[in-house]
Specification:
Rossmann fold, DNA polymerase, domain 1, six-stranded parallel sheet, globular
């Protein structure tokens, strides 16, 4: 198991990694699609959570995010997700892990495919706001994960070097984005859905932030 002292920057995905929100995103997307005439259920969308809307909309409905229909679906999804938001909680050990890295003077940078407003609302709801050195979102990148744009943006925002950074995420999209940016990745199982085989590109795989913190402390 690697230790945080090998890294000066830790990049964090949010949904499924630090906040138990993947199921909520899938449900909100599914309802938004159905309301706009696209028959799909949350189980079909669940494997796509971790991508941004620029990837998910074409994959599900062959609709571009910037088209009138794509914009309408995405806006409705945000409305539906905001209704579910108050029920969301941090994953086990998320706050403790961030506090530990802060105390070790390791930079902590958000690198998420979510939009800026949604990302900040999720972190606030989970009680994790104020624990990051910097934030980046899909608003800082042309392409969402698994493209490496957000990882590049997070490194630039945090002033980090790829060889001294690690990405912590819960999907193959996080791992692929990190790989393409020349950054190591640690995968967490707490996002659900994915098997260890799906996450095999990661340097390490842990159950949740609490397990990662325990391994780093020892």
């Amino acid at each position: 198991m690697t230790t945080p002292f090998l890294y000066r920057t830790v990049l964090f995905d949010v949904d499924g990694t630090l906040v138990d929100s993947n199921g909520a995103h899938a449900e909100a997307w599914a309802q938004a699609f159905v309301e706009h005439g696209v028959k799909v259920d949350a189980a079909h969308i669940r494997p796509l959570i971790g991508m941004g809307g620029d990837k998910l909309l074409p994959a599900v409905a062959h609709v571009e995010e910037t088209s009138p229909l794509g914009t309408a679906i995405a806006n409705r999804k945000m409305q539906l997700f905001s209704i579910i938001l108050p029920s969301l909680r941090a994953t086990a050990g998320a706050r403790s892990l961030l506090e530990y890295l802060r105390d070790q003077r390791v930079d902590r940078v958000v690198a998420t495919s979510a939009g800026e407003q949604e990302m900040r609302a999720i972190l606030e709801q989970a009680g994790l706001d104020g624990l990051f050195s910097e934030h980046t979102s899909k608003d800082d990148a042309e392409e969402s994960k698994p493209d490496p744009d957000i990882v590049h943006a997070a490194l630039a925002r945090g002033g980090g070097r790829p060889e001294l950074a690690v990405m912590v995420g819960d999907t193959p999209y996080d791992i692929e984005a990190a790989r393409r940016a020349g950054v190591a990745a640690i995968a967490l199982r707490c996002g659900g859905h994915w098997t260890d085989a799906d996450l095999r590109g990661a340097t390490d795989i842990c159950d949740n932030p609490a397990a990662l913190l325990a391994s780093w402390r020892t």
